[in-house]
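Supplementary Methods S3. Input chains for the assembly prediction are listed below.
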Amino acid sequence: MSVIDFDLVSRHLDIPPDAAQILRKSEQEMYANLNFKWDGRLVQADTYIVLHNTVRGPAKGGIRMSEDVSLEETKRLAELMTYKCALARIPFGGGKSGIRISPKSLCPEARRDLIHEYIHVFEHYLRSGTYVPAPDMGTGPSDMATIYGATHMPECVTGKPPRIGGLPGREEATGYGVAVATKLAVEDTLGKKLEDVTVAVQGFGNVGKWTARFLSQWGAQVMGLSDVSSAVLADKPISDTAIAEASSPAELGLKEIRRDDLLLADVDVLIPAAAGGVINAQVAAGIQAKLVIEAANDPVITEGDGVMQERGIHVIPDILANSGGVIASYIEWRQGKSGSLTDKSETYEVIEKQITRAYADVSSLAKSKSVSHRLAAQVIAVDEVIQSMRDRGWI
Ligand code: NAD
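Predicted structure tokens for the full assembly:
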């Protein structure tokens, strides 16, 4: 199912039938069964690369490694990337990879063999620059370094370690952007300052941990944190230093609660920054936060979105809130092509500028049409992609 409700979007935007027909389908969906021998044993992983739409530029999107990966999920995530890049006004299309295997089942050497197999099978897409991967759940900079090591083309992959052509600030870029979007949304929708709100963050990986750290540094009261195996809720705000030093919420030594109860915590702002589909109708009915920031991709299912709208809970959609990572990827790609150098302050500056502008566009349309932030973001992003199709004579 498409991430865009074209019937709903078309109430606010003229969508030519040819454009809708192109956007309802992926441009390309590739499958491979990656095979390699490890420790005398055959290891196999179903693997997908989906290019949703490349009208605005190379297909950009991370490589997800998880035993839950499916073609359907990879298609939705590729589609989200098309609209995320369009809303951030960066010249990339939407793509995504999924490798169906548990990252925990692989030692570093086996993991390198798996990534080499991925490169071997999909080499054409990587070397031609048609698809430019980055890290996503279950993958990280060292995997991107393996891809760079095989192609010797710095622009064919982003999210590399800074010493080998990666971008200073890329590691924390998504969390930084989520924190910027949270600050803007707190002021705009709740009419409060960041210092005056309490926050709970689900997920303690790259995105969740950095989001919590920036928000805590900027004065927000971070009260709740969770990961796949633990959740904590504090009596007083958790400091940035404590968050930085812990490798899991359990290590903070605070009051533990049931993992999924974190979503229902009595806080002003809830930030799902872990997996997709965690807010269904039942969870949405119990959420106490007045503002939800989608740091993860696709964390709210349609029914959950409907319930939150009915309850007057503001939701800042993923294509706006978590675009800091792809904005940083764009700077890294540009750096790889030009050989220029970028410092961390420039990375932060560009993310803040692009997200602030996109937020202003979305908020203004949401107010003028009395629609949700999600619908406003989709209308702007779909319009941008349609205009790009006209520029290229596709429609
Ligand atoms: P990650 O693998 O680094 O971290 C995921 C975290 O979520 C881990 O702490 C894990 O324990 C936790 N988790 C998993 N299931 C959970 C559950 N049911 N309840 C609570 N915690 C749970 O992944 P990441 O890179 O931080 O990505 C998180 C989300 O953000 C994903 O949806 C990803 O697609 C999205 N995203 C990531 C980036 C990026 O730059 N890394 C950019 C944009 C969007």
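The radius of gyration is 20 Å. DSSP finds 14 helices and twelve strands in the chain.
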